[in-house]
Recover the amino acids of this structure.
């Protein structure tokens, strides 16, 4: 049984009753979903973490911190025995329900799943335990939402995916009924849960780490001043960094793009920017790719930029815009998804209505004429802070 332990937040969390397990799709990257898992693992420091596949070497600058926190806590499925499993993430989702069903949860009272909509972690055999799902989104690829990969150019793959997705939607609905309480990361996601699963949910926005003091001594990137604009995160297709790049090229404005490449999309972005499609950081007349950065470096980039440009198509929540506002930086964003719940148009940024470079460029020009106060941005970001998340999730779990 678990015992009382001091959490990362200074207080004592009684994990002896109930006994809690954490579940996550797979750990092969670090994004908003993994940030939620990290906070939950801090809140319940003795709770084991069950996941289909754990690949710490893919966690980049976050690896040392997470390996220290999660030492001895990770339980992987049989996927760890499959050769080249990290490169087979997409096809392995067909076996993921079995991977989670084979875990033994018979000794647990409460299971908290962090579901990114990819690997069906709610398929767990919960026995007598309560299952609470923190849902980042129902599977985007199953319900017509933009995804990181694009199979439509290959007719055979598109046809095969359509057939498979029909049966996967049936399974997804079945596993959703296994959940005792859904928690949505935004009203946007809550609406999807109601539409696709016919289940209600409680909205608790994900925890956003608000920078207190930037560690300038750890800063290694050369930033001449704050005349540049910024975009970044996971360099995936659905994030539409191409829109930000083309808009800044049109306006001849300097843009820095940070983040880790996903599925080779970075090379496409560099071609759009007029740069060599190589893996190393490159600089051009207006566009610069600075690669994957630490949290301190990210906040430094954000705090010195004119604005953070966020063109993601129907984002589930969007932590990056909130982090930018926490640094006192306004946001230029496409009016869709969770960003409409965080950025206040005209007060903490500017929203644009068409997913096109011209619309984004017009929003940037509009922002240049506004006098948005940094304090307004910071005040807005505090509504989505880590302490706010912890208080809400603790209250919910106590009620269960």
């Amino acid at each position: 049984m678990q015992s009382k332990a001091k959490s990362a937040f200074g207080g004592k969390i009684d994990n002896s009753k109930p006994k809690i397990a954490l579940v996550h799709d797979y750990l092969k990257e670090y994004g908003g979903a993994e940030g939620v898992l990290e906070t939950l693992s801090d809140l319940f420091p003795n709770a084991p973490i069950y996941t289909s596949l754990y690949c710490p070497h893919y966690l980049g600058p976050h690896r040392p911190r997470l390996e220290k926190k999660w030492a001895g806590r990770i339980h992987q499925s049989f996927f760890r025995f499959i050769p080249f499993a990290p490169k087979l993430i997409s096809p392995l989702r067909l076996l993921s329900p079995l991977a989670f069903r084979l875990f033994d949860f018979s000794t647990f009272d409460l299971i908290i799943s962090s579901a990114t909509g990819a690997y069906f972690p709610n398929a767990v055999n919960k026995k007598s335990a309560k299952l609470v799902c923190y849902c980042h989104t129902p599977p985007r690829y199953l319900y017509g939402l933009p995804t990181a990969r694009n199979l439509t150019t290959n007719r055979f793959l598109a046809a095969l995916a359509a057939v498979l997705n029909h049966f996967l939607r049936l399974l997804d609905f079945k596993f959703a009924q296994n959940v005792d309480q859904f928690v949505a990361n935004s009203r946007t996601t809550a609406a999807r849960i109601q539409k696709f699963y016919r289940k209600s949910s409680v909205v608790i926005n994900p925890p956003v780490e608000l920078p207190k003091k930037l560690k300038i001594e750890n800063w290694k990137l050369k930033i001449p001043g704050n005349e540049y604009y910024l975009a970044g995160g996971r360099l995936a297709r659905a994030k539409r960094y191409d829109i930000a790049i083309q808009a800044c090229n049109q306006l001849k404005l300097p843009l820095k793009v940070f983040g880790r490449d996903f599925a080779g999309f970075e090379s496409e972005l560099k071609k759009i920017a007029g740069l060599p499609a190589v893996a190393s950081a490159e600089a051009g007349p207006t566009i610069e790719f600075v690669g994957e950065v630490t949290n301190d470096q990210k906040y430094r980039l954000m705090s010195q930029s004119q604005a953070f440009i966020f063109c993601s198509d129907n984002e589930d929540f969007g932590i990056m815009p909130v982090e930018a506002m926490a640094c006192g930086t306004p946001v230029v964003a496409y009016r869709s998804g969770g960003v409409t719940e965080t950025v206040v148009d005209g007060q903490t940024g500017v929203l644009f209505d068409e997913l096109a470079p011209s619309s984004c460029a017009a929003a940037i020009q509009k922002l240049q004429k506004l006098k948005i106060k940094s304090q307004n941005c910071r005040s807005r970001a505090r509504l989505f802070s880590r302490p706010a998340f912890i208080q809400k999730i603790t209250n919910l779990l106590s009620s269960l």
Notes: The two ends are 19 Å apart (CA to CA). Confidence is low (pLDDT under 50) at residues 1-13, 215-223, 278-284. DSSP finds 13 helices and 15 strands in the chain. The chain has two domains: 4-207+386-399, 216-382.
